[in-house]
Write a structure and sequence with these properties.
171 residues; mainly beta; Jelly Rolls; 13 strands
Length: 171
């Protein structure tokens, strides 16, 4: 692989040794060896020790999406290169919001965005973006027990006002 020329999505997937992610897109581990601690946050329910933080590289190609899911921890998204991503969020009260992540400040896009814990969210590259390469950092670090993939039927019943969006971004 010639590293002095720009890489396309496949080139980044190869270079970063990415694998398919269960939500959609591709990922590879970043930093995973942070010290362990016992988190105690008032509105988060972690059982047992967690890493202080963890991070991954995450790539979404245009036409793919990260399906609705929620975490017990806050997740910081960092845009590295490529197109703009749209982060769709439904908070516990049912309020829908979105945020643009990427290099489009004139449209309100930002390079970093924190998705709060307990918020259902899905992510898609905007049309014409090709792909977007990002990083995701969690504190406390990722643990399978802190992750919940949305069930289309249950989420649609809970937030019927967003049924079309839920159908579009669940698998």
């Amino acid at each position: 692989m010639k590293m002095d020329s720009p890489l396309d999505a496949a080139g980044w997937i190869e270079y970063l040794k990415m694998s398919p992610h269960p939500e959609g897109g591709s990922f590879s581990a970043g930093f995973q060896d942070a010290p362990l601690f016992l988190p105690r946050f008032p509105d988060q329910h972690h059982e047992g020790q967690r890493r202080l933080y963890s991070s991954i590289y995450y790539l979404l190609k245009e036409g793919d999406f990260s399906a609705f899911h929620r975490l017990e921890t806050d997740e910081m998204w960092h845009h590295y290169l490529g197109g703009v991503l749209k982060i769709h969020m439904i908070d516990p009260s049912g309020t829908y919001t979105f945020r643009l992540l990427g290099n489009a400040p004139g449209r309100g896009a930002v390079f970093q965005f924190l998705v709060p814990h307990h918020v259902w969210f899905a992510v898609e590259p905007e049309t014409g973006s090709g792909f977007a390469l990002c990083g995701c950092t969690l504190s406390p670090g990722y643990h399978d027990d802190d992750f919940e993939m949305a069930d289309r039927g249950k989420l649609s019943l809970q937030f019927s006002q967003h049924k079309e969006l839920i159908n579009r971004f669940t698998r």
